[in-house]
Amino acid sequence: QVRLVESGGGLVQAGGSLRLSCTASGIIVRSNAMGWYRQAPGKERELVATIITGGSTNYADSAKGRFTISRDNAKNTVYLQMNSLKPEDTAVYYCHMVATTSSTGPSFNFWGQGTQVTVSS
């Protein structure tokens, strides 16, 4: 069973920074993509940033220039450094991973339980 555990959320003033971490555990044969999504109250879950095993990254327009995603493949851990935070960044942030759990099996989507990020004005 694969489990994703996030940490690093909290309350910060506008303009401040936070660093989210997410570590995957369990039987993981190959982790393809890891990333972060967020969901604000009353809104749909949206992509924040993703990173694949080779290091290529993809960011939502709202995250470009302020957020940086990185990963440690050996630790199955993904990070999200968030700078210049705005009140509109307030949301529950979810870690996501696409991975295979057997040598011949398909890829699956795995999600963390979410961590709250609140940015005060």
Shape: elongated
- How much beta, percentage-wise? over 45%
Can you give the mean pLDDT?
95
Largest sheet: 7 strands, mixed
- As a whole number of angstroms, the C-alpha radius of gyration is 14 Å
Helix and strand composition category: mainly beta
Number of E strands: 11
Tally the helices.
Answer: 0
Low-confidence stretches: none
Oligomer: single chain
Q: Helix fraction?
A: under 10%
Termini separation comes to: 40 Å
Order of helices and strands: EEEEEEEEEEE
Secondary-structure map:
Layout (H helix, E strand, L loop, with lengths): L2 E5 L2 E4 L4 E8 L4 E10 L6 E7 L4 E3 L7 E6 L4 E6 L8 E10 L6 E5 L3 E6 L1
Parallel strand pairs: 2-11
Antiparallel strand pairs: 1-3, 3-8, 4-5, 4-9, 5-6, 7-8, 9-10, 9-11
Overview of this structure, please?
By secondary structure, the chain is an all-beta fold. It is built from no helices and 11 strands. The protein has strands at 3-7, 10-13, 18-25, 30-39, 46-52, 57-59, 67-72, 77-82, 91-100, 107-111, 115-120. Strands 2, 4, 5, 6, 9, 10 and 11 form a 7-stranded mixed sheet that branches. Strands 1-3-8-7 form a 4-stranded antiparallel sheet, with no helix packed on it. Strand 9 (91-100) and strand 10 form a beta hairpin. It is elongated and about 50 Å long. The model has no long low-confidence stretch (mean pLDDT 95).
